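Lab notebook, bench 4. We co-purified these components, and the gel suggests they stay together. Before we commit to crystallization screens, I want a quick structural picture of the whole thing.
Request: model the full complex, all chains together.
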Amino acid sequence: MAIIRHHNQTNEITVDLSTAAVISDRVYAGFGYPSLSDMEVTTAMGLPLTYPPFVMSVSKRGLKLDQVVCQPYTVGWFGVQGKREVRLACFYLEGTVNMHARPLEGISVVVDLEKMQISEYFDRVRVPVPKADGTEYRPSTVGATTVNRITVVQPDGPGFKIDGHIIRWANWNFHLGFDVRAGVVISLASIFDVQKQEFRRVLYKAYVSELFVPYMDPTEEWYYKTFFDAGEFGFGLCTLPLEPLRDCPANAVFIDAFYAGQDGKPIRISNALCVFERYAGDVMWRHTEIGIPGEFIREVRPEVTLVVRMVSTVGNYDYIVDWEFKQSGSIEAKVGLSGVLEVKGTAYTHTDQIKEEAFGTLLAENTLGIYHDHFLSYHIDLDIDGEANSFVKNKLVTKRVKDNNSLRKSYWTVEKVTARTESEAKIKVGAEAAELVVVNPNKKTKLGNPIGYRLIPRSPPASSLLSDDDYPQIRGAFTKYDLWVTPYNNSEKWVAGLYADQSRGDHTIATWSERDREIENKDIVLWYTVGFHHVPSQEDFPVMPTLSGGFELRPTNFFEANPVLKTSVPTPVNWPNCTSLHK
Amino acid sequence: MAIIRHHNQTNEITVDLSTAAVISDRVYAGFGYPSLSDMEVTTAMGLPLTYPPFVMSVSKRGLKLDQVVCQPYTVGWFGVQGKREVRLACFYLEGTVNMHARPLEGISVVVDLEKMQISEYFDRVRVPVPKADGTEYRPSTVGATTVNRITVVQPDGPGFKIDGHIIRWANWNFHLGFDVRAGVVISLASIFDVQKQEFRRVLYKAYVSELFVPYMDPTEEWYYKTFFDAGEFGFGLCTLPLEPLRDCPANAVFIDAFYAGQDGKPIRISNALCVFERYAGDVMWRHTEIGIPGEFIREVRPEVTLVVRMVSTVGNYDYIVDWEFKQSGSIEAKVGLSGVLEVKGTAYTHTDQIKEEAFGTLLAENTLGIYHDHFLSYHIDLDIDGEANSFVKNKLVTKRVKDNNSLRKSYWTVEKVTARTESEAKIKVGAEAAELVVVNPNKKTKLGNPIGYRLIPRSPPASSLLSDDDYPQIRGAFTKYDLWVTPYNNSEKWVAGLYADQSRGDHTIATWSERDREIENKDIVLWYTVGFHHVPSQEDFPVMPTLSGGFELRPTNFFEANPVLKTSVPTPVNWPNCTSLHK
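Here is the predicted assembly.
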């Protein structure tokens, strides 16, 4: 299906690619608009520079027009139906390329995207533009502390194969795709079971379904900043070429991605994805045995994994998205946040001057880092050894010992609670001690354990702190819980709705789940949110050291035994420094 | 101070090393015993093999005595004062070296350590010894799946310096020590502040203070298994030589450790520690800027860190302990759990046969993996830019918008709550949205923000599920909260008490903290528990793929700005595979 915005309406056109025929063409009559296109963005950015009131505002501030750059921001929904429009935030370059650090506060420029012209303009208040000093991040202008050179070497080359869209590596194979909205899409991931001598399905499909970034400043120029980066801007559209040897190590292989431009022609993003084997010096498993008299047994297997990476830069922020496959059967999803903070110009130059709420941290003179969240909702359609799965909370519950024969008074045990419907599955993770498991209730190990995979958070869960009745919260209702489980439905791909721009929250997972559908022994989808409450610190300025989060999908009674017991031990690559200091 | 167990009493002898004179010699009269010595362990292990009732028990089971190996287990405290004794658990080798997988259930052997003889013996019940099949983990007997060779190369060699016990690397320096009880000890860690052109103290000292592993089976042969691996067995004493190229990468430097043997002479653990620069292919910070017309700016700094590693194998389990220093100022503590599960022999060969509570997962025929916890308490004596620090919870609280000028209804903001006393500081992490920060209240950044470091869990918190009145919980009371904060006290080093073996919980952090001492603007110590509720799965058998947990200490307004903005970009090391597939 193609979504076309044309003549002030949104057409949903279904095309049969085999016959190149339009099967249906209907006008979408609901709320919300499709994502911005890159051509719209580029055109809208330039409008203020020839708009006399804006030119005057710049001049009144004593700034140079040719050093001003504007960026389109989606406007959200706050109870009133808006036209298809964006607000422009404008920034100042002079002396730096870090324009995000130099906002022109107090100016509001609204662009009507259908007419592609400025429809509203305010110059409400004048605030100092933060200085350029200390904002530069390019190396030509900076000093250096040093670390020695270091690289990864694979004497026999990379160990994975790329067959079209299929990646084959060690005991894994999977389909690697790209979507203009989601970015990287992993699907059809199966792992070879050495014992059964067959590939077994783990994952039907996984991707970032939405990325919601609400800012916590309710004032005029900031209240609306409640962005849906996937649905409004396109997390895939914002994917940019990776830098060899820096974004990905020396043994990486790069893959281009393509999306349809505004004219329908394919646009290439070169080096959009990279694939590499990761060796971080970690241990896959080990044991030293000194308990047997006369013997010293030490077996260690180094951990080598496969990583698929992309980076999406949505304006100021850079999101490093990793999918990591482990030979032990785990899949780890990781996101690294870097880039530049969204800052607000202010008259403050010291915290002592702050007498009323500032909604952020003073990061530099005249520069506030506004509090905000990052909520990445992952669509995780597991197919654990087949389609029909159930979601089980393995609750760890304390038992009192009633038997007087024991000297213990308590212990904990596992109570398995299968979620029958959607309402039984949604949870705030960590509220109780429980393992979160997806099982195939139709299959068991030889010993009789349910075959499953477990979801383990790898960063502190963070659900939304906004009030339930607040507009951005209604639109980003998925953030109310860390985890939701739904039955598979082809029309439910985007957790905050297909038309996210100015959506009213009537097509989010919260509305889908109101039906409270059955999810037991069904093809189910997990929606897990990797969340960050971000209180900026001075270290995040002028560019932010990566902050990471994610989750692990780990086999739990999926295999009959440790699947990497029989891993080969490749001849170690020697290196002259590998000696003891004391020998 | 030396602790000497001699003639049924524990002497605490203080020695002036400069004059080689004994300053004081007092008998410890409280509860609890010192750790086992390695010579005691070795001697006790052998006793059953010449003990006629045991020889008969083995013979009755049709087993070969020369294939039996026993291991000493501490007995805990269950309300009755015991002699200084251990229980032996015995295992069967025949056909495997994985003795832990083949327990001889039903036999209880108690050894009086003072007399070094068997003081109690029961042969209560006969249970099948699990088979040897599938338990072997040495490569000589197994097949293989393959991955290509991969290694780390540093053309100019490692970039750190070892000056005695001081490690200098990039912007960090710290003291690296070793303790027979704690294992690796990091102290005096300071980071060079490029802006201030001086080293600034971050950490006075950090180490694993205790490792508590209670099992969840209240039956006769298992109820007492509630081990304090540091206090009873010695986490340092159980440190074993690392395997070059497998436990640590090719660019690692190894360091020996020493401890005092039973006769007072030094005993060397060769290659006990390794230090290496870690390059996992990750990104320290990055930004791509495409918002400036006509420009494409992409700056990426690869992440290179320094890791200090040790492995302690406490009987069956292997703990991989990492301290990772990041140029961005973070210190990450990580522990990886591998090795062999503590299993229980059983008649069950299929879960269908289990009609009453089994206290574990059926992992193989006749083999139950008993539920248990791992609680590692880290002693973290931060000295953030000086000794006097405060512990602050930056609570994220929802605010309703009262101002009708805003279209927003809510936002969150930060409320800083300084813990005045110990009782105000102890918490279960994750119960509320809050950042956990240690600040120096006497120093601020130029902008006026409090100088601090933040603690971020890197694995799900797990506090104890045992009842408060249960004996092991009284002894391991630190597990009631994930985090405690105490004022520094030289006598408070071991979170479960100095004499952990058969302790009664009268010298744990819970008793220290009853005084509810002031902790504001003091030299304070954080005690953070990295916990795991471990429900064994079949994948953990016969040897367990590493499961990791840990935490990050991250600067938050410690620096005036991103401290790695001015990081050098070493000439990338090229590699022929670094090409796009599509070019």
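The CA atoms of residues 506 and 538 of chain A lie 39 Å apart. Worth comparing against the SEC data before the next meeting. The first strand of chain A starts at residue 2 and ends at 6.
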